[in-house]
């Protein structure tokens, strides 16, 4: 293997091939030899001396900075994590109940799950996102594998495509969740963007979107946010989704849906899956990454699913066999606890019903926070049009504040948010709305 290989996925594959070929000096070129001075006890220099400090993550780093602030006024509106009116993290009652049942069930053991995860969880997850009466499920054309939350599902899906799909280019919206380009690049795909948000109208740049997807090469992969687009809170209308579908199908563009907020946008699980179901209903293929972090509040349990809707049961089963080959060397098999909670809730009618009520309450509280913040800015006469706060959908408001204004709000008001001006409405409460409104008012009147 002397060729020059560019992509990380290719490099990993070639390392694997060398390993399988059994060449004894296979890894020589990758081996770092410690200098003699560092090889004995008491040596002054670390073998890692050359390692430079990496930057904090643009989203999770906001929490790191927040944790270091000792002000009693501090407010974390960075990461998209739901908080109660009291500003506390929430574990849903139905989740507590499911966990109790699992703990009380002495027949449960801690054996490894299969590589693809918990069978019940996979079946129920596909039903949840595609609809109970989905023809694709009835035809056995869907393969679903349990993955490490939304991020892990995107990564496994990306690596599968990099290995087995003929087009390695994925188009992601501009802007998008900050982790998307990193996940897909490291999966071995080449990332390009399509226009999505218009800062002037604070709405969808639909014309730009159609033009960019219209000029994408045939077969390219297109990342779509199923609902509650992050960070903009701007979604296409059902009519616009239909136009997107027609354009994409006419050019054989492959839809890869990221569904991190099902139920959070409208409070209704089916309504929030509309875009995906539209693409599945035409009989075409698509990929869906699902997360239960937000809608079941299972953030740290890392529970999600990757579904690939194929043309036939035979293709789906071969695709699944290859997904296993992606997963096994990555993390072997997924954790059992979170998936068991989800399966317990989804398979019991009463628990499912209880979940939808709690989910709706979370969505409603966020919508209420939008109204309260809008009213507070109106009362203060804050310059500018703030109607986008109540028009946008989901967990975030894309305020339009620039990075200097954000820095000012953090410095003067101890309000933490991402530098692109995104605020997590789920982190706000009636008590903290006035403080945020004061900060926004001061930022737009004092920092231009
Ligand atoms: N997709 C989108 C669009 C998304 O906003 C997130 C998380 C994920 C996937 C991944 O979530 P997971 O926890 O892997 O299921 N977004 C929030 C948290 C984060 O950045 O990790 C956020 O934007 O704040």
Automatic annotation (TrEMBL):
Pfam annotation, one family: Aminotran_1_2
Gene3D superfamilies: Aspartate Aminotransferase, domain 1 (3.90.1150.10), Type I PLP-dependent aspartate aminotransferase-like (Major domain) (3.40.640.10)
First-tier enzyme category under EC: transferase
UniProt keyword Cell cycle, yes or no: no
Listed SUPFAM superfamilies: PLP-dependent transferases
Catalysis performed (reactions): L-aspartate + 2-oxoglutarate = oxaloacetate + L-glutamate
Keywords of the record: Aminotransferase, Pyridoxal phosphate, Transferase
Family matches, as PANTHER family: ASPARTATE AMINOTRANSFERASE, ASPARTATE AMINOTRANSFERASE 3, CHLOROPLASTIC
Miscellaneous information on this protein: In eukaryotes there are cytoplasmic, mitochondrial and chloroplastic isozymes.
Protein name (record): Aspartate aminotransferase
């Amino acid at each position: 293997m002397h060729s020059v290989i560019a992509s990380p996925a290719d490099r990993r594959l070639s390392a694997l091939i060398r390993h399988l070929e059994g060449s004894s000096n296979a890894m020589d070129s990758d081996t770092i030899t410690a200098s003699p001075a560092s090889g004995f006890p008491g040596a002054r220099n670390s073998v890692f001396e050359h390692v430079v400090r990496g930057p904090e993550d643009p989203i999770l780093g906001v929490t790191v900075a927040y944790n270091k602030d000792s002000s009693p006024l501090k407010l974390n509106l960075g990461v998209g994590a739901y908080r109660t009116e009291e500003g506390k993290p929430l574990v849903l009652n139905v989740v507590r109940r499911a966990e109790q049942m699992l703990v009380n069930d002495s027949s449960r053991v801690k054996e490894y799950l299969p590589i693809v995860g918990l069978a019940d969880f996979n079946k129920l997850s596909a039903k949840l996102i595609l609809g109970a009466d989905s023809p694709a499920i009835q035809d056995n054309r869907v393969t679903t594998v349990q993955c490490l939350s939304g991020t892990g599902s995107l990564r496994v899906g990306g690596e599968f495509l990099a290995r087995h799909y003929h087009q390695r280019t994925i188009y992601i919206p501009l802007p998008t969740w900050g982790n998307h380009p990193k996940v897909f690049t490291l999966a071995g795909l080449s990332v390009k963007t399509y226009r999505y948000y218009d800062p002037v109208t604070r709405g969808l740049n639909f014309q730009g979107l159609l033009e960019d997807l219209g000029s994408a090469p045939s077969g390219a992969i297109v990342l779509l946010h199923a609902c509650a687009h992050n960070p903009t809170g701007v979604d296409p209308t059902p009519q616009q989704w239909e136009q997107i579908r027609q354009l994409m199908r006419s050019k054989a563009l492959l839809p890869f849906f990221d569904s991190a907020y099902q139920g959070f946008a409208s409070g209704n699980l089916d309504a929030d899956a509309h875009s995906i179901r539209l693409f599945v209903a035409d009989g075409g293929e698509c990929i869906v990454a699902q997360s239960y972090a937000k809608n079941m509040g299972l953030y740290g349990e890392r529970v999600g699913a990757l579904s690939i809707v194929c043309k036939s049961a035979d293709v789906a089963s071969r695709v699944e066999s290859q997904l296993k080959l992606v997963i096994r060397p990555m993390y072997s098999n997924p954790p059992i606890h979170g998936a068991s909670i989800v399966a317990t809730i989804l398979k019991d009618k009463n628990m499912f019903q209880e979940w939808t009520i709690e989910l709706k309450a979370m969505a409603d509280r966020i919508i209420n926070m939008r109204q309260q913040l809008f009213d507070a800015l109106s009362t203060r006469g804050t310059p500018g049009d703030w109607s986008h706060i109540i028009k946008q959908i989901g967990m975030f408001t894309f305020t339009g504040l620039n990075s200097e204004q954000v820095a000012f709000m953090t410095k003067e008001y101890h309000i933490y948010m991402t530098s692109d001006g995104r605020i997590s409405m789920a982190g706000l409460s009636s008590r903290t709305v006035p403080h945020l409104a004061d900060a926004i008012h001061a930022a737009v009147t004092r920092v231009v």
